[in-house]
Amino acid sequence: MKITNLRARQILDSRGVPTIETEVTLEGGVIGRSAVPGGTSSGEHEAVELRDGGVAYGGKGVSKAVEIINTTLLDELKNHDFDQISLDKKLNQLDGNDNKSQLGANTILSISLAFAWAASRTGFKPLYEYFGQLYENERFTLPRPMFNIMNGGSHGNWATDIQEFMAIPLKPISWAEKLKIGVEVFHQLETLLKGKGYNINVGKEGGFAPQLGSNQEALDLVCQAITSAGYQLGSDVGLGLDVAASEFFDKETKQYELKKDGRSLSTAEMIAWLMELTDRYPIVSIEDGLAEDDWAGWQLLTNRLGTNLQIVGDDLLTTNPDRIKQAIDQQACNALLVKPNQIGTLSETLSAMKLSQQAGWQNVVSHRSGETEDVTIAHLAVGTGAGQIKTGAPNRGERIAKYNELTRIAERVEPTI
Ligand code: PGA
Ligand code: ZN
Question: How many Cα atoms are found within 13 Å in the side-chain-facing hemisphere of 128?
């Protein structure tokens, strides 16, 4: 497929932070468009985001990246024939660095994904089918949603130390029924919080973020909301945590600082605390329970809890095939959080997912805290048969965009898991 034009612009993400939206035009006139998300609690090993620096937008503008696409990259790519793999390869070559620091992973991803949209349209296919073809998957499935209904950490002004408290429908019911559970539990939680005199303002991923007295209080509230919505804890709905532990790990003292609980924990104590929580609550998944370079700790955590629980690497793995290989070798976790902008091309994202799948791990396709109305990840989850998606509370337009797209896809794709 020949690229005939590229057009990038600076738009805003859900945090009011600039991001890149790019349109790729293919020969014949078909246009694909994609906008890149951005992280707040980003991992240290993620590929580099190209930002302007300086004063405007607090240094977060992307006008340089937009300029690079509209001039240099247009010159390089225009009138050349590509498929997804050769385009992503070319973009990586043009950058020349493992961490994409020259052009920026945001610059590169916007082209990679816009091309995917255009390519799928050229073949009159839904995007998930295009992803399925690249991933060699023909079994399209609606993912199990992980509803992040309480936000803490840097997403919720440190309402709690733990960043995300998720309600996860567990039964093999339809997409619509799973979505209904998320919505009902979310609304029950609102009622509960109001009744207790808490504020009902939400965090960056749409979950409530009242200043609570402890981390455990959030778990109690989520459990109560599930029960009062009429669901059975642990059989209908389980809990998921994204501890985002790198965010409160002190590198000097090597301690995990739980400010809400007034505790400072070593790696071993942190693991003991997580084990205690899993004894007390129906937790089925723990993401980033330890800091991103605490490899020995991750091994121990997976050894202790990995048989029964999903142990998800986000900041640990940063969707990076090299780090995933290391984690497979060391049995450091058993699931990959998939964030395309952590690695910067669609091809590398799919390679990361394949590695994980072949190791017998689970894949959880994920949004970022800074999102747009872009719905690519909904298709990625379906097309690869990933099985799970994490895209916030059923609240805030940029989160709802993904849920609504999955509802549309569900009309065409039957199997649910
Ligand atoms: P981020 O958060 O997009 O701010 O990194 C999402 C997550 O940690 O899973
Ligand atoms: Zn995370």
Answer: 24
